[in-house]
Amino acid sequence: MSGPNGDPNISSEDGIINDDDEYGDEEYAAINNMLDQINSYLDDLEERNDALNGKLHELLESNRQARLDFRAQLTGSPTQEEHHAVEQESSLPSEQDQHEENQ
């Protein structure tokens, strides 16, 4: 019979592998508490990672928008904000239209 790592010269009956339970309930409780703490720390790290990831996406979007605005200023074309403002102004009734409606 082969050994634990597939070594044909060592068998599991040679006493190398000892499956006797040497740990008491207290040791298992202590290990369980440590695992709970590790799990809690990992959850905290995951939350921090998610928050940082969200902030990174916001920063990337902000930088992308700033780059587009800067490029638009260099080329002289209106920025998205200016284009949006022009659209809003054109959709509003002019003073003359309002004056005609009031009469």
Automatic annotation (TrEMBL):
Coiled coil: 28-62
UniProt signal peptide: none
Keywords per UniProt: Coiled coil
Family annotation (Pfam families): UPF0184
Region Disordered, annotated ranges: 1-24, 72-103
Keyword Coiled coil assigned: yes
Record's protein name: Bublin coiled-coil protein
